[in-house]
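Sequence, please.
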């Protein structure tokens, strides 16, 4: 079941995952003098979740013990503890 996030500060409903330490790669074409490099689409090979935050105001999700929420599992728990979910059957 998809959970509904509501920011306690601004009421926005979109949550974003902020990642750091990512390793990116793309194809390059090398020209004489280093000019006019052309790129393929960038691939992300590795990234570490730094935090989950409100897409609008940047409110960061924290556990009750003060540590930052860093996994989707914990984000799920945070939302269930902090956001009243619509009552419905199914998915
Ligand atoms: Zn917000």
């Amino acid at each position: 079941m998809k959970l509904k996030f509501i920011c306690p500060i601004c009421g926005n409903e979109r949550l974003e995952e902020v990642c750091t330490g990512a390793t990116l790669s793309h194809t390059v074409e090398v020209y004489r003098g280093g000019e006019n490099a052309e790129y393929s689409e960038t691939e992300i090979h590795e990234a570490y979740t730094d935090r989950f935050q409100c897409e609008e105001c940047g409110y960061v999700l924290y556990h009750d013990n003060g540590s930052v929420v860093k996994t989707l599992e914990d984000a799920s728990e945070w939302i269930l503890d902090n956001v009243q979910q619509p009552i419905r059957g199914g998915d």
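The radius of gyration is 19 Å.
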